[in-house]
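Quick one:
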Amino acid sequence: MTRLSRRLYPTSVTAIAGGAAVGLAGVLLESFPVWRIGILLAVVALPSLGYALIYRAAQASNAQLAAEHTAGYQLALYHVSLGLLDAPAAPPDGGEGVGQADTRGLAIVRTLPDSARAICPRDGKDTTHTRKAV
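Output:
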C-alpha cells in the first residue's frame, strides 16, 4: 500500500464528515455561503475517497489469494463428499417405468376443467383450427 493511499482514506472521510457538519451548520444558521462551502468540501472529498477504496480493494496480497484458493478448494471437496457435484446423469430414454403420458412433453395441466376452453389446442384432436395473423 502506498503512502498516498494509506493517508488518503482517513483524510477524505474526515473532509466529508467536516463538510457535512459545516453544511448542516449553514442550514441551521440560515447562512447560504457557509452551507455552500460545507457541501463543496464534502463533494470535493468524494473522488479521493473513491480512489482510496478502489485501491484498497484491488490490493490483495499473495497470502490472501492463497487463503481464498484453499478455501474454495476445500468447499469443492466438501461438495463432492456430499455428492452435489458428481450426481448421476439422467438416462437418455427417460428411464425404465416411464409411462407414455410422461414422454409426450412438458404440460402443466393435462386436462382442462369443464369451465375452461383451450385457446389453441395442441394435442392434434382439433384439425379444423387454423391460426391467423391479426
